[in-house]
Every structure is written in C-alpha cells, then in structure tokens.
Specification:
Helices cover 39% and strands 14% of the residues. With 294 residues, it is an alpha/beta fold. It has one domain: TIM Barrel, CATH 3.20.20.140. The strands form two sheets. Strands 1-4-5-6-7-8-9-10 form an eight-stranded parallel β-sheet, sandwiched between helices. Helix 8 runs parallel beside helix 9 and helix 10 crosses helix 11.
Amino acid sequence: MKPPIIDCLTHISREADDVVGWGPRFLAEDLIAQMDAPRKVLGEPARIDKSIVFPALAETVPTSGLSFEQQHEYVLESVRKYPDRLVGGAVIHARLWDDDVASQLESMVREDNFRMLYIHPSFHKYWLPISTPSEGEGSKQLLYPVFEFARKWDLPVLLHTGEPPYGLPATVEFVAGEFPDVTMIIAHMGTQGVVYTLESLLVANNHPNVMLETSFTQCHMLIESVHSLGSERVIFGSNCPPMEPTQQLMTVEESLTLAPPIGMSLSFDNTRKVLGGNLASLIEKTDSAVARAQ
C-alpha cells in the first residue's frame, strides 16, 4: 500500500491576514480545494490526502487580542468537520505559554487529533535558547516547557527558519541537543527570506532528531539534503497559502526523481517517504503516545 501524500505546513483562517500580508481569508474549504486540484504525482492522478493545518500567524501574536483558545478555534472546528483530511497543528507563542494553555493543548492532542507544534521565532521575535536555563534566568527558560510538552506526547515540533536575526537554523542546534528525544523539523530548509539550507544540514547532521521541511526550498538544495540525510529525514510541506501546493509538489518530485544533472534519480518508493510516509510515521508515534495515556 502506497503511503499517503501529507502536507506538513498549511494555514487557514476565517479572517483576512493584514499583518503578515497574505491577504484574503483562506477557509478550510479553500485549502481542501487546493488539496484536491487536478494533478499528477509520480505519473498518477493524485490528491494531497491530508494536511497539517495551523491558524494564520497574524492571529497568534499578543496584539491580536485573542487567547490561545480563540487563536485555534477555527482550526479546531475545521479538524472536527474534516477529520479525514485535516490534522490539527498548534502555533505556540512561548511568551503566552502557561498552565491553561498546556491544559487546552493537551485536550486538543488527546481528543482532537492535533499532531504538531509550530514555533515561529521570527514572527514572535525571540531567539531559541542557547544555553541551559538557570534559576532566575526566565528568558532562557522560555521555550523549555514547550519542548517538555512535546516530549510527553511525542509531538514533532516545526521551527520556522529562513531569515535573520531570529530565524537562523543554527539556533536549533542547542535545543536539538538538549531534547534529543523530541523530533524537530527545520521549516523551509532554512530558505525563505535568505538561503540557509547548508546551515540547516550542518545542524541536522549533528542531531538525528532533526528533519527538514521542503517549502520554499531550491531544487539543488533539496537534492543536497536528501543526499546528506537520506529520504527518511525530509518532509514535504507547501506553506499554502501563500504558496501553491501543486508547484511545491512538482519541485519535490522533479528534483528527486529526474535523472542527473537535473535530479538525483531517487526511486519512487523513497520519494513517497518524503511526500508523506515520513510524516505519517511521526503522526503514528503521537497516536501511540495518546493511546498509552488513555
């Protein structure tokens, strides 16, 4: 049985996003229409079977005036409405983390199939920890409870990267070592505003718990990533919106399966790992952690 195609990174919202600048609202139905758009993948008609859905980033900052529950209300509603297509993802602003947020998130994981956390240092404006926290140094402890929560539930953590000063992939180095049993996914392969894919690869080569996500990536850097890490540690994501999923799928498929010098002649089976098999395995690990807790 072929593994599903799963998109690691999408956003939905009832409201227009005037903060990040993505424009009009983008509903769950709009996303599913993109997932079901006519296309061929690996020579066969294919839809995107599932997507991890996060709220619009504009809703996740303190100035939005929204609580954590309100920030994720539409995502929660949509995951319940389309459980066969959408998997919940939570955007975590570390400065807003408290016991109430932890309790709400635990319910979302246990009851509503939330299977990924997303940390966005650039948009929320903080650095990842770069040293072990000490008593009284609260700023250094900012994100530790989030990673400890991820450890408890075997949740993968997606970390935005791609531009200075907060989004440098090198900042993942320390937390990946401090939490070696937490899967960390470097979003965009360090490529959104600036190209930091080689830096992402240096971190991932040092830490087997680090994987790379494909949105915004350049073809030759995607090839380098699979050569360096293997197909088991690269995960497809579209970042829809603003990116369009079919174009992002084509980047992955053509970069990996075409013959050199354009591609790397990766087998279809290994390409399917990137397109969904690897993420399906991560979701199953969280499913197992939830089942053990019941």
